[in-house]
Amino acid sequence: ILFLLFFFPFFSSSLLLFLSLPKKGSDDVGGRTGGRQSGGSGCGKSRGAGDTAGEQKRSAEAAARPPPPHSPIEINKLCFDFLNADTDTTSTMLRWIMAKLVKNPSIQSKIHDKITVKTGDEKVEVSEEDVHGMPYLRAVVLEVLWKHSPGHFVLPQKAMEDMEVGGYRIPMGATVNFMVAEISRDEQEWAKPMEFIPKRFLPNGDSKGVDVTGNKGIHMMPFGVKRRICVGLNFAMHHLEYFVANMVREFK
């Protein structure tokens, strides 16, 4: 189990969701049945008018109260989405980044040199504050995200009405998938798309103004865009930069 939790973050998230789900016979169910059980000793006794009026009043008050915004199961699933969106994406991308750095030792050395300049030789590990001041590190992460999206498709969309997009008719009810990985291979949008060039994502690079959210034009969308954007985007970016910096520093 420890092996699965460590090497397969998705398993740990699923296990957490399973353990957090309300069990059969839990408080929610017990609360509904408990009243019947405690009232069992009163079987055969006539109920007075006061009891009936009290129950009616309580029922009216309960009906007037607004329903809770989310049920416990909905909250559990939402927490699961947050955890899985972060851990699964991060573990997938971390493998891709390490593979790219192994195949491009000059870029790996450049990251290592910048980390050493930023933190010095005596510091135990790269801190979160250190990571924020390393634009080249972020450029490497963005280059890999752009070239190797965590998922080949984003979450599928559904056409709510008949429409035409780019000369193609999409009927109502059709499922629409976006081939995210193909965007990074479009030579009309990117220069030398098949080469690994992290500097294009530096503040003064060729991709100036391009971001992962798609708010400045959809040139890359590894996490989706707009309302359907991945809820774990910020977590994933932060953790990727932190892990890559420390791994390159320790294992160059």
TrEMBL record:
Which sites bind heme? 230
GO CC terms, sorted: membrane
Biased composition, Gly residues: where in the chain? Answer: 31-47
Q: Which UniProt keywords apply?
A: Heme, Iron, Membrane, Metal-binding, Transmembrane, Transmembrane helix
Q: Which Pfam families match?
A: p450
Q: Which domain of life is it from?
A: Eukaryota
Protein's UniProt keywords contain Cell membrane: no
The record's section on InterPro entries has: Cyt_P450, Cyt_P450_E_grp-I, Cyt_P450_sf, Plant_metabolite_P450s
Region of interest: Disordered: 27-71
What's its membrane topology? Single-pass membrane protein
Query: Organism source for this protein?
Result: Oryza glaberrima
Q: Which Gene3D superfamilies match?
A: Cytochrome P450 (1.10.630.10)
| Location relative to the cell | Membrane
What name appears for this protein in its UniProt entry? Uncharacterized protein
What does the record give as cofactor?
A: heme
> Annotated Gene Ontology MF terms?
heme binding; iron ion binding; oxidoreductase activity, acting on paired donors, with incorporation or reduction of molecular oxygen, NAD(P)H as one donor, and incorporation of one atom of oxygen
